[in-house]
Amino acid sequence: MRAIGSSLPRGDAVGKVVGATPYSGDLSMPGMLHAVTLFARRPHARILALDLGEAGRVPGVVCILTAADVPHNRFGLNVPDQPVLCGPGDDEHASRVRFVGDKVAVVVAETVEAAERARALIRVEYEALPVVPNPVAARQTGAPVLHAAHPDNVLLHYRVRKGDTLAGFAQADVVVEGEYSVGGQEHAFLQPEAGLAWLDEEGRVAVACAGQWAHEEQEQIAHALRLPDERVRVIHPAIGGAFGGREDISVQIVLALAAQKTGRPVKMVWTREESIIGHHKRHPMTYRCRTGATRDGRLVAAEVELVSDCGAYASTSTKVLGNATIMAVGPYDIPHVSIDAYTVYTNNVPSGAFRGFGAPQSHFAAESQMNKLAAALGMDPVELRLKNALRDGSLQVTQAPMPAGVSMDHVIEQCAESIGWRRTAQGWQRPAAAQPDSPWLRRGIGFAAAFKNIGFSFGYREHCWATVEIHGGGDIDRVVVRCAGSDVGQGAHLAFQQIAAEALGIEAEKVEIVSADTATTPGSSGSASASRMTFMAGNAIRGAAEKALAMWRDEEDRPVIATYEFNPPATTPMDDMGRSTPNFTYGYVAEAVEAEIDTETGEVRVRRVVCADDVGRAVNPQQVTGQIEGAVVQAQGWATIENFVQRDGLVLTPHLSTYLIPTVRDIPDRVDSIIVEVPDPLGPFGARGMAEMPFIPFAPALTAALHDATGVWFDHLPLTPVRVLETLDEQA
Amino acid sequence: MAEQGVPVTLTVNGREVRTSVPPYLLLVDFLRDTLGLTGTKVGCETGQCGACTILVDGISAKSCAMLAAQADGHQVTTVEGMAQGSAMTPLQAAFWDKHAVQCGYCTPGLLASMTDLLQRNPDPNAAEIRRWMDGNICRCGVYQNVVRAVRQVAEQAPGGGGE
Ligand code: FES
Ligand code: FES
After folding, report:
1. What is the pLDDT of residues A260-303, one digit of tens each?
2. What is the pTM (predicted TM-score) of this model?
3. CATH fit for domain A33-129+193-269, picks 3.30.420.10, 3.40.190.10, 3.40.109.10, 3.90.1170.50
4. What is the ipTM of this complex?
5. Do domains A161-185+281-456+576-731 and A463-566 have the same CATH topology?
6. Is CATH 3.30.365.10 what the domain over A161-185+281-456+576-731 is classified as, yes or no?
7. Interface touch A188/B139, C-beta < 8 Å
8. Contact criterion met (CB < 8 Å) for A238 and B41
9. CA distances from A530 to A134, A244, A332, A601, B39 (A)
């Protein structure tokens, strides 16, 4: 019997299809109060005064929380640089609002209507400050300083020097230069932020919300409220999508504070518009690249300068920058590399985690360079990639060898063959796209590859905790797995169940998962991000299951309970030359896109996508395919129609009517998922993480297809019809 | 607020509801907050996402784009009223079986749209299914599995699978 590798349906889906599963916004409690947030709605200003008088007199208002009520008015996932609430007073840092979604007050009332009425009556006196609209403006001399600790507004600069690029470029027969820019992206998880907080039976402040990392949220709430961690409890009911967008705190801290102040349950639900201005986005980035190769297609040198718009607060910008840095030349072995990467504070909505975490941006630049280089060399783009792909033992840009289990060449070959690339005596050869009769429609086929870390990087003490209880007498009747890892919709809990069943040699139905409540899963599992959950929790659960099974065989006592903490090999931060062991493992993916462009309207239609993703071992093939199809649709949105527009710090696309995300009409006609299984030596039963991979190479594969169709390079995303037409005109 | 409201009588999931509602109350808020039927979701409040889709007299409708008062005299079915007793409908079972659910937040709305489609056409082809899904956004991107689920229902229906 094999639990792993079978496409079991999801247990949680039953409650979801009959409408019985509550999400955080569906919860209510007797005596519950309602809270609404007053957002600053201006990008940069000092708060001079706050008048709550009239608002406080609205019948039904119980309290209005302001900066003065927050015991420790700072939070942030990596750098605590964000005030929980901004307001006037001695705290200079908190007296300024730095983006439209900064929060000024939270009104708590008997009804939503009363809270909204009172919010409209709060009077805030602002002094407008000059706005820093983008990283270029932020780095100019005399630009307003957004955070005192960073007088040049540069939050972080990474510098990588591998080999000697001067010597490298001297060996190059062909050098390709390119400039690229990519836009931000709104997560638009379908369930906007919502939560309910109350004082539980043990007097803890409990917060039920949609998040990605219960223990981290617990820590951040405790930090802001100046409570010991164990006085705070975080529960994740069903979560309506996340994609990185729930890594940062949204409603959690203020709800906890409101419950603590009032002693009553307090609920808050953000509107879509509040969600869009209130939480972080994918980083907009710009790139300047030079890549050199010898005539026979050997990469010899690369130089990259990249700048990311951090927005108003750090969020995870430093980590995203690290990823973008080590992936800035793509999955290739290049002896001489120089990279300078900057993340810069502005008055935009903060940038942070989003599926791919810096990898899609850097691969767009790196893979576009590869496609241009192939054209300049007159070489097939698959051929060029295979000549240079990272292999076991290749040195990364950080000068550390790749961890074992590199499958980049294998994945590239599988993908290329599936869409019709041919191996000939002269090497690989691209298939020609069949052209439609209408002359204004052109079709092309493009290719790109990518790699991405699994798990946290650069010296973070990565770990994951799990407990396995085995119940029964002679035979195993029932197994309880405790693991805090959040199921944000990706199906992590089913994967946990299948891995536990496999390790114990029992049917998956016998395994129950207890999760996502810091009160019942005391150890942290880390975030449902970085494609790490199956890998990390899988290893922790497997370890605990094997330990429990040994006890089950050796001991009389029933039930048996074993706890295990999985610690992967250590990583290290980059030094001033960028030297480090950044990661303990990677995932590998390649994509081929067949697209059609309407040269009269600028519309781009994706006809077919072939995605070959090395998942190590498919724990549940159906779920893997679902992740591939879903990631491709999101990537297509980012590359084409999703246009997150900010002007002078204002969000011009704050609704789903102005920020368009793909509907069924936009998606590819066909997606072929090729599940590659080259076991990861460190993975649970060989499994690698995978949920981000299929997103990463899509955009450069698409622009390669458009080049194949038109002979024009598209170097700036998103490819809105207007931009497509302009680019066609410019290069015509 | 009942005293200042509009009197309404409607059937929700087969049960008659007689009450009065504020004239501005949205149907989705009435269902979720007044009746506690939280299976119907809110994703945008502005008619784009389709998470709030329900059946009104068997026809799919966005409940954030309707006032509660407009439901007077009509039959409303939400996701909670689809299953017969504890058994899932064939469509619900197919969503489960075909992994047409990731986070599940779009699911109640998609079920309403697809139920409406199957009532009109018990054997829709993939293109027709896609056309009927146009009003429902799924950010997890389960669109293709929804097509597979609806095709499974069509094929398993008596006399179905003719396509
Ligand atoms: S909530 Fe009704 S369409 Fe989005
Ligand atoms: S399953 Fe998440 S929005 Fe559709």
Report:
1. 999 999 999 999 999 999 999 999 999 999 999 999 999 999 99
2. 0.97
3. 3.90.1170.50
4. 0.96
5. yes
6. yes
7. yes
8. no
9. 27, 9, 21, 38, 31
